[in-house]
Amino acid sequence: MTSELVSRWTESALSSDWFAPAEPASADEAVTALFAAEYRPLVRVAALLLHDEGAAEDITQDAFVALHAAWWRLRSPERARAYLRQSVVNRCRSALRHRGVIDRYLRRQPPPGVAASAEHAAMASAEHDRILAVVATLPSRQREAIVLRYYADLSEAETAELMGISVGSVKSHTARAVAALRARLGDKPGNGR
Amino acid sequence: MTGAPMEDRLREALAARAGRVQPAPDALPTIRGRIRARRGRRRRAFLASAATLATTVAATVGVMAVREAAAPPGPLPDVSAATPATGNPSPPPGETARLPVYWIGPDPAAHPLRDVLYREFQTLPVTTDTLAERVRAAVTAAVSGEPLDPDYRSGWPAGVTVRGVRVGESAVTVDLAGVRVDADNPAGAAAVRQLVWTVTAASNLPDVQLRVDGRQVTTLWSEVPVGGTLRRADADKVLAPVWLISPQQGDTVDRAFDVQLAGFLPDGAVRVQLRDATGALVASRDAVLDDTDPHQGDAVVRISLPDGYRPGPATLSVAAAGAPDTPLDDHEIVLPG
């Protein structure tokens, strides 16, 4: 299962054939090429951090507009990718701080165990709903750490760099988040409330 | 999955949640528009600064009176007002919103008689800037509007209207009028799926409850159960195997444009072909739908029109790479002159 969930970030980091190093692309070309590879994964990471898809899309678009302005000093697909990730994570953090989107998200969450129905092959299983409901209540740094580690599939070092903290702090945030999930949900699917 | 470590359960839950996030199809044009608006503002700011500097220099050398040099420049026109500031602009009252609408159409891959769902984004009138109004507009289009692509259709019989929409904590309640619950509707099950996918896409909420003339109903058209809470069925059971997200039907493209695709073909290999009005092949691109989304993969391919192409109507189609002559979805678009 784990291998199926490897993020597009990892895949896109391996593919730089859109960019010819000997002939730097223009800012417009860079934005177009990076959009194809990075936009959707970035929106998804932002949505997991914010729990607000509209805001996630706005923030990711902000990051691409900012990238266009900063391209003259980046001029490298690797640096541009890192810039986009940093920009999206920082903007999500700022949005969470200032807009209270967590509260809005919590109000929107369906209660666990919605009754089955004709269409209840469902958008997400009850197990996913339970896990995500707990994730939504985690402190923001813990949530950031597990989204970057377990969805974006970044290494501890990459996560630390992106969050601006030490590798030890990433380990600590991640361990606390997983411990909180275990405490609330149990070790096996369905053990929770 | 029993006994799977918490880390794996967490990965799976996050991936499933992320898989439900469907970025807007016009994101790239929106970003480009914002970049153009920003360039315009910077250019005007530069010109204003240059004008101020020139004025100051002129005053210093005594060519211009000090009083005139001190006059501030006029206010800059706000270009950003003409360009959406965000990817999902909230329309002011009485304007329009770009909303997802699902339609039904034949499944050309395997079951010509089976109806599957296709999605379009339509610009629809809204009267207020509320979630309920956006859902109302999208559902109204789904049950009584027209798809952009003539290959698609609504599964709802003529005469159905939306009486009201109420948005709750996790569920959207849609109240319809004009539904003859005992009549026959061969496309009934697909029609309910069409409504459920449209409501959940327009609202970002997972649950739908249906009313007819203000009352709960358990069955539509004698055989389609609609009681209780309705949710989306698995994507691979109800969505078309592959579809063109953008450009949409009727769009005029640039000389170089991106084609966005979504689908879940077994090997993900697709071929995009562009043919002009004479049927001549203008461009052909192969792509592989990414498989990180358990529900629906996607791909973006760029097409640059070759020299000497024929401007005007053209057909953009997508097919499985192994059967390129059997289009699974196509859109009529316009090539620029």
Automatic annotation (TrEMBL), chain A:
Domain RNA polymerase sigma factor 70 region 4 type: 129-181
UniProt entry keywords in alphabetical sequence: DNA-binding, Sigma factor, Transcription, Transcription regulation
Any Pfam family hit: Sigma70_r2
InterPro entries assigned to the protein according to its UniProt record, in alphabetical order: RNA_pol_sigma-70-like, RNA_pol_sigma-70_dom, RNA_pol_sigma-E_actinobac, RNA_pol_sigma70_r2, RNA_pol_sigma70_r4_t2, RNA_pol_sigma_r2, RNA_pol_sigma_r3/r4-like, WH-like_DNA-bd_sf
Annotated ranges, domain RNA polymerase sigma-70 region: 34-99
SUPFAM superfamilies: Sigma2 domain of RNA polymerase sigma factors, Sigma3 and sigma4 domains of RNA polymerase sigma factors
Keyword DNA-binding in record: yes
NCBIfam families assigned to the protein according to its UniProt record, in alphabetical order: SigE-fam_strep, sigma70-ECF
Family named by the database record: Belongs to the sigma-70 factor family. ECF subfamily.
Designated name of the protein: SigE family RNA polymerase sigma factor
Organism field: Luedemannella helvata
From TrEMBL, chain B:
One Pfam family from the record: Germane
Region (Disordered): 71-96
Transmembrane helix in keyword set: yes
Protein name, per record: GerMN domain-containing protein
Keywords: Membrane, Transmembrane, Transmembrane helix
All copies of domain GerMN, residue ranges: 135-221
Family annotation (InterPro entries): GerMN (IPR019606)
Keyword Glycoprotein: no
Membrane spanning stretches: 45-66
